[in-house]
Fold:
Amino acid sequence: MKRDLISLTDLSSDEILQLLDVALDLKSKKGQLHDALKGKSVGLIFQKPSNRTRVSFEVGIHQLGGNCVYLGPKEINLGKRETPSDVANTLSRYLDAIVARTFLNSDVIDLANHATIPIINGLSDLYHPCQALADLLSVKENFQDLKGMTLTYVGDGNNVCHSLMLGCAKVGMHMHIASPKGYAPKEKVLSQAKEFAQSSGATIKLFTSPREAIHNTHVVYTDVWVSMGQEEESQERIDLFKEFQINNDLTALADKDYIFMHCLPAHRGQEVTAEVIDGPHSIIFDQAENRMHIQKAILMFLLGSH
Structure:
């Protein structure tokens, strides 16, 4: 029976930890080609522009011996030129898996419901599971143990925040989220994460003060204040979030050995200062590289090649 990765709810805690171990092993053999996807083709259906997601998947698929087919907005125009169900049924005849980067999470679900091959959520409005798994991998590299660590996310309770909540809850990491009123994560996802947290011993706490949230934290994480599709709200968001900037005054409250993370692209001078993002605690480019390694592990897992 085929497996999909729409959200981290699709993976057990043990499966997440297994993926991290496989990714670390693959990273240790960086540059060595692997034949796990030999003879297999993976399609990338992208409605949004992409730097890290596209390149990390394309290069990773190549390193595993597979073939990658990129389908941008003009090729498919998902939901307008062609329905997700027709796309899923057709591409299932050609491909072995699909990575979908969409505006709406419902489109990823439609693809998964009609495809006979695995569907991987490469980003939607609700979740970004590949990013969160890469983030957990990055924390594991720096601290070895995930259980009992604290990650503080400062900013908009968006798709990245949602997947981080689910991931931290599954592996026993505590998570603090500091957002302006009205910009907290969605209640539905928060409830799911809290259920998982009860089983793992993790805690999830919401704050409206970044200074309270960041106290003694091991990981400081932020994301852009204005995501794709929110450009009309740009000035309103910048004004509202200005007290949530990650800077040296704020990070002074974190653990002395904290790491700074950002899923990129970043806007220096808005959500984070250059002193922090380009400083000694920042691991943003290790984090970006880890997208490729964890995605290779995901593909091997879903295609039965691990």
Q: What stands out?
A: The beta strands are 41-46, 67-71, 97-101, 119-123, 150-154, 174-178, 204-207, 219-222, 259-262. The chain has a mean pLDDT of 95. Residues 8-128+291-302 form a domain with the Rossmann fold fold (CATH 3.40.50.1370).
